[in-house]
Amino acid sequence: MLYAEGVDYRRCFDELNITDPALVQSIHRRYITAGAEIIETNTYSANRFKLALHGLEDKVRQINRQGVRVAREAREMVGDPIFVAGGIGPTGLAFRPGSKINQSEIELAYKEQTEGLVEGGVDLFILETFIDLDELGTAIYAIRSISDLPIVAEITFNEDGYTLGGEDAIKVVESLEDLQVDVLGINCTVGPQGSLEIIERMAQCAKTPLAVMPAAGQPTLIDGRFFYLSSPTYFGEYARRFVEAGAKIVGGCCGTTPQHIEAMREAIADLQPTQSRGIMVSRPMEPVQEETNNTKDVPTTIAQKLANGKFVVSVELDPPKGVNAAKVIAGAAMLRDLGVDSINIGDSPMARVRMSCIAMAHLIQEQTGVESIIHFTTRDRNLMAIQSELIGAHALGIRNVIALTGDPPRLGDYPNVTGIWDVDSIGLISILKSLNEGRDFAGNSLARPTSFFVACALTPQAPDREKERERFRRKIDAGADIVMTQPLYTVEEVEECLDYFGPIPVPILLGVMPLQSYRHAEFLHNEVGGIYVPQELRDRMKKAGEKGIEEGIEMSCDLLSATKGMVSGTYLMPSFGRYEVVGEIVKAVFGGRIG
């Protein structure tokens, strides 16, 4: 896999744990994602004798320790509860005739490697591709002098079914069981067919759980490169035979790609071994289902409805100022029953302390089933916190985010608190899109991409409209999927907005804030930036008197009816927590009055 990624075969592959950990980690992640439940560290040749060939004998512990850390980080990034095994291979020098290396030196080399793996935090050890039972015994003894973690000990056979020392399968079982390993077995050299014959013979006498990890057939030289020709399908068929023959761990060695692992996982899904630390017991079980939240999943409900041409209705609800979210949840349930498509959750609007928008959105989705859109500002979070919270939101099932810069803290209850603003809303959109590509803002991989549907805000009546237009184009260029406007009140305003800021290549939700009274209209017009209430409408509200709420609802319905063909949906903003007011508008939308 490393060679296929462009690493020269003359390089020390183990050293890549230090020099290119991202590459090694990416390969680990591919195997985990394919369904592997044990991954081995990239430390097969990380003993002092083999590292000395590259002048790296003084970095044994560092390379092994880092190899574990890279594998553990891959596990953490993917999020699956898999095992990290310290991979240990033979020295290649043991007990060779004429060798000046004695057994004690080899034992010390294995102890040194084991110490690095233990320091890194392995869960078990896999000793693989050993050709000599004596050297394998030395390695086991060295590990046991340092650690009591489980040991999987595998030796390799030739095509005739014997080890290089001439031992048959029965002799190998007897020797390894005397050494009290936790799992014994075979790997490499022979392909699936030959491995099955050997594992069947081992199963006749073994009391210890068995492992089998064959190479993907014999290597074949094609155009100067060796290829392993056993297909994933073929490997999958034999994986099931291995389990039926008694193997508790199945896997692969040379030439085994993530596609092979995936095929094996599918083939033995109903025979999958259960695992616990130090013991592995086989019993039939249901296939493990990956959680949707951890995968690149389907488009959000809102995105799908917009793609299908449905007029979308979203309603903004503010989180509570305390810990009791019952009123907000009840409001969301009421709006759900009326047919709203989503609930918007403010992010401490007006810079006043409220419950986390992420927590509130999660509660609403969990308890009402209505999809949420969180308002997410860059005011209160540095670049690291922004990404951490977004990843957490995704894990909780939140997919829709409107990227906002946020109101200045001086507007709220803590005027002496400073804003952070490492990035603005445009930068936040870029961050969200980076996460959707499977990497953070610094380019580090997330293992799996997120699937956020990203909204941006548009203030048609901004004091500096030219600056607003320039920023709006940058938001679109950054990748915004949908636009949500600040409130507008007349058809003429909507038409002028679309003309001035257009063409707008993504769906647009028209912001509608029903007026409650003449006083409310005057306040919005004179004291809230970005909102303009025409004199004609303010006069109507003044004339309505005590029937201001009814008049405000009527105005909003008229506006939506006249503009329904111009926009893709509406974004309703109830004032003073009066959900029933926007509820009347929702009824009009779905009752056929609007449009």
User: How many whole angstroms does the radius of gyration measure?
Assistant: 32 Å
* Strand content range: 15-25%
Average pLDDT number: 89
Low-confidence stretches: 274-296
Q: What would you call the structural class? A: alpha/beta
Major sheet strand order: 12-13-14-15-16-17-18-19
Shape: elongated
- CA(first)-CA(last) distance: 58 Å
Count of runs of 4 or more consecutive helical residues: 21
Helix content: 40-55%
How many extended strands? 19
Largest beta-sheet characterization: 8 strands, parallel, barrel
Summarize it.
This protein has 595 residues and is of the alpha/beta class. The chain contains 21 helices and 19 strands. The chain has an eight-stranded parallel β-barrel, surrounded by six helices.
Give your account of this protein's structure.
With 595 residues, the protein is an alpha/beta fold. Helices cover 42% and strands 15% of the residues. It has an eight-stranded parallel barrel, surrounded by six helices. Strands 1-2-3-4-5-6-9 form a seven-stranded parallel beta sheet. Strands 7-8 form a two-stranded antiparallel ribbon. Strand 12, helix 12 and strand 13 form a beta-alpha-beta unit. Helix 4 packs parallel to helix 5 (103-120), helix 12 (326-338) packs parallel to helix 21 (579-590) and helix 15 (425-436) packs parallel to helix 16 (465-478). The longest helix has 19 residues, at 60-78. It starts with 15 loop residues before the first helix and ends in a 5-residue tail after the last helix. The relative contact order is 0.06. Residues 274-296 have low confidence and may be disordered.
